[in-house]
Specification:
This protein is an alpha+beta fold. The two termini are 21 Å apart. It is built from 2 helices and 6 strands, in the order βββαβββα. The chain is globular and about 35 Å long. It has one domain (5-92): OB fold (Dihydrolipoamide Acetyltransferase, E2P) (Beta Barrel). Strands 1, 2, 3, 4, 5 and 6 form a 6-stranded mixed β-sheet that branches.
């Protein structure tokens, strides 16, 4: 069973990849997670901030019926917008 953890993610424009979402989220480098991994999280959170915004969320590793691994954060979960410096500081402590 996966445990929830704090993760810094960033938004990016979706250029295909099998998703209908125009704006996706991925983990930021330096946390031991694949930066190509998608993050399932609040679409309102993603859309209410500029592309490239970094967020601190609580998420867990998941997959659907043996599919690709992804990070899951409930759409109603709290989050915090981070500056670039705050994101670097958090990641340096991982």
């Amino acid at each position: 069973m996966s445990h929830y953890m704090d993760v810094v993610i960033e938004t990016y424009p979706n250029a295909g990849g099998g998703s209908s979402k125009s704006l996706r989220a991925r983990p930021v480098l330096g946390q031991g997670l694949d930066v190509k991994m998608n993050v399932e999280c609040s679409s309102k959170m993603r859309k209410n901030y500029p592309v490239g915004t970094k967020f601190l969320i609580t998420a867990k590793l998941s997959n659907r019926e043996g599919g690709s691994e992804f990070l899951y954060s409930h759409f109603n979960s709290s989050y915090r917008v981070l500056s670039y410096e705050e994101a670097i500081e958090f990641i340096s402590q991982c």
